[in-house]
Amino acid sequence: MIMNLYLGIDIGSVSTDAALLDSQKKLRAYSIVKSGFDHQIAVKEVIGDICRKAGITPEQIRRTVATGYGRRNVSGAYKTVTEITCHAMGTHFLSPDVRTVIDIGGQDSKVIRINEYGYAETFYMNDKCAAGTGRFLEVMAQAMGIGIEVLGLAALTAKKAEPISSTCTVFAESEVISKIAEGKPREAIIAGIHQAIGERLRGMVSAVGMRPPLALTGGVAKNQCMQSVLKNLLQTDIFIPEEPQIVGALGAAIFAADSVS
What we know:
By secondary structure, the protein is α/β, with parallel strands linked by helices.
């Protein structure tokens, strides 16, 4: 028996993510690779990796749908769908009750309000400024001389957060360097960085009009301090997928499976 398989590929600024569903919409495999300079190379790499994990060949994939800002670089895709639509549908697939999604990517962040069918009703996207994105955290980690993978854990050890007044990456970096020179505790500064991002995201949520339940997706969703800050600022529980980085790719795979032959 030949099983139909459906692939979703999400090409972002930092990573290219893929999710593979079978005809029952069961997740068979997923993959996350760096996008790099050449998106076509990243696409080949992510397809190769997901096929190895699923034990299939690329020819066994019936249909592919692409999303993300680099979605037009997926040759042979059945169609392309916007990342807003795919993140909404991917989140709905994982948790049908969710009505508001905060997605924090490498170079942009977005808040999406979705309906009971998993489609976006309205959204707010920050793609012109690094504030509130993974890139902001990356720059701050470099300024602090700490690995980004442990940034959130370090912040959780702070007794209090040292306020960071600027949300501009350049000015915030200068502010952080000044606080280091003043001898402020490193953990307190890092906690303040997370608080500043949380405040920025809360403003975006207010602009959209939050409707609970709430979900947090994207690579930064793995950051435990960011989870805690947003939960406190928004005064609500937050659903976090087991692998929050593949939600857009998962949504694309759902559209691939649902497309009429």
